[in-house]
Each structure stands twice: as C-alpha cells, then as structure tokens.
C-alpha cells in the first residue's frame, strides 16, 4: 500500500481550446456526407441534460430512484459558417447567392479537437477528438448593429439537440452500450497508428501524402471503434 500524493510534477492536467472543427451533413440513410472545414468557431459548449432521479417510496421508506434518460446538447459559437451548414440552419438555395429561410433543417455530425495540457508540456501534452452524431440546430438570434469607433464582428450561435445512434460494441466489462450521440477519443491513451487511421478518415487524405487519397468522412460508431481497436 502507498499513501496518496496530490499535484505531483507532470500530473497537473487541464483542457483548453477548440479547433479543427469539421461539419458532416447527414444523408437520408443515416450515413454522413463529405466533411467540410468549419472556420471561425470560437466556442463549443457541451450541455448534457436529463439523468434526473425520481424517488419511489414503499414501506414508509425510500424504495429506489428511477433515473431518466440522458440527453446530449451543445452550443456552437462562431464568426462564420460553411455554405453546407445553410441547409442545417433551415435555409435552401434557389440560385447561387439567393437563399430562403424557414425550410426543413437537416441533421449533421461534428468533429472538433481540444488540447490536453500539463504543467510540464504546456498545451502540447495531447489532445481529444470530440464527435457528435445526429445533431440538429434550432433557430438562433442574429444581431446586426451599426459599425462604429469600436467595431466588433458578429458572433453567430446555435443550440444543438441530438438523436443518439446505436452500435454493437460492448464496454470493457462486457455490457452492451446504450445508443449515444457523442464519443470522445484521447490521444494520450490511444495507439498512435490507430489514431492516425481515424484522423485520416475524419479529415481526408491527399494523393501526394503517399497514402491512398480519400475524402473526409464521419465513421459511424462501430466503424470508429473498429479503426481504434485494430491490431498493429
């Protein structure tokens, strides 16, 4: 047995930043189309909800707690958005440069990266890839104001709700996992070769890289787990 020690050198970790955001518009069959880079994202706030307890009483005592289903939501804040996001935000193109609002909103997936930092490595200790499935954006406010002596760029914001997707993978304890709308991958704990394979799938590969060229795509959970569990 050994005594617990806190805040040792090299063990003071934190997370920061958001970058490399990719949008994948969902197809009618539940798969996702070619990914596009989303520039200008300033924040993504994950907002889980639900998982609330309802107490049941019997025999004059608290009998048990029933837990409600957990929902996953998020908020995106950005200075701009890719053209492909317009149909996810309820707009439809008539001609190039002409869009009509209040249309059906398409579902989409997202991938983004956050940094893992430490007291010894700074922000370069590692990173996490965050993946969101089955997202839909609700209508959002857009405030336009006059340019003055203290100009500011407009910040757009979208609230996201999600529909979980099923997969067959089991947990390390053998439990069948429930459908999910979010998966997080930690680069400090995943095999580097497998991590590269996943990033090639998510971001695409150029023909000049020496690897077979491919478009960026969003793997469904079972495919994603297969990439990360491949034996080398």
Feature tags:
mainly beta; two-stranded antiparallel sheet; 8-stranded antiparallel β-sheet; 232 residues; 12 strands
How confident overall, as mean pLDDT?
A: 90
Number of helices: 2
**Which word captures the global form?**
globular
Poorly predicted tracts of residues: none
List the helices and strands in order: EEEEEEEEEEEEHH
Instruction: Report the sheet with the most strands, covering strand number, pairing sense and barrel closure.
Output: 8 strands, antiparallel
Taking Cα atoms only, what radius of gyration do you get, to the nearest Å? 21 Å
Number of strands: 12
Query: In angstroms, what separates the terminal alpha carbons?
Result: 36 Å
- Helicity level, as a percent range? under 10%
Strand content: 35-45%
The helix-and-strand class reads mainly beta
Short description:
The protein is mainly beta and 232 residues long. The protein is 9% helix and 40% strand. Strands 1, 2, 3, 6, 9, 10, 11 and 12 form an eight-stranded antiparallel sheet that branches. Strands 4-5 form a two-stranded antiparallel sheet. It has a two-stranded antiparallel ribbon with strand order 7-8.
